[in-house]
Request: fold
Amino acid sequence: MKYALVTGGSRGIGREIAIKLSVDLNYPILLNYQSNDDAAFETKKDIEASGGSCTLLKFDVSNQEAVHLTIDTWTTQNPDSLIEVLINNAGITRDGLFMWMKPEDWHQVIDISLNGFYNVTNHVIQKMLSNRYGRIINVVSVSGVKGTPGQTNYSAAKGALVGATKALAQEVAKRKITVNAVAPGFIKTDMTAEMDEKELKKMIPANRFGEAEEVADLVSFLASKRASYITGEIVNINGGIYS
Reply:
C-alpha cells in the first residue's frame, strides 16, 4: 500500500491538501499534526466521509526523535506499506521587526519549517530511493521568494527551503523522485485571519485572497504521475503579487 504523508495537516492549507490527495489520487493519508486534536479528528472524519482513509500521526516535526519513533512505529505495524508522497507543510509564524525579534521567535520558526523538513524528509526519503519513485512537495511562501518585512525569520526559513528544494531535486531525479515547492501568497486560512484583507487585496493583481483549495489543486497535480518531468521548481500561487 502506498501512502501520502502531510505534515501540519489538521487545518488550513495542509487540511485541504490531505483531502485533495485522498479524493484525486486515492492515497490513504498519514496526517501529521502537533497539538490540535479536535481539528485533526475533524479532518480525518472528512477524509473518511469522502471515501478515503486517514491515520493520524501526532508528533512535533522539529523533534527528530519523535519523528523517527512515530514513523518507525507505523512502518513496523504496516510492513507492506510505504510513504510515496511527502508534503512538508508544517510551519508557524512569529512576526515582528527583526531588530526586536526574540531568540525563541527566530529559533521556533526555523526549527519547524526548516529543521522539520530535514527531520521528516531525510527519514522518509530512504525508502523512496530504494523503491525508485517518490514525490516530495514543500509548501514555502511568497515570503521565502521575495522576502516580507516583519517576517525575516519566516522568510529565512522558507527561503532556505527554496534552496533545499532545488538542490535535493538534482540529487534524486535519477531515482524518479521529484522535489518541488509551492509558494502561496495571501491565502484565506487561520494564519491570515487577522490580516486586513480589504486593504491588502489592493496590492494583489487578482484583487482577492486565494483559497486553500486552489493551493491543494496545484499540490495534487505535482504529486501525480502527470508531473513526472517537473522537478526542482518553485511554483508561485499568489494572484500575481510576485510574478
About this structure: The radius of gyration is 17 Å.
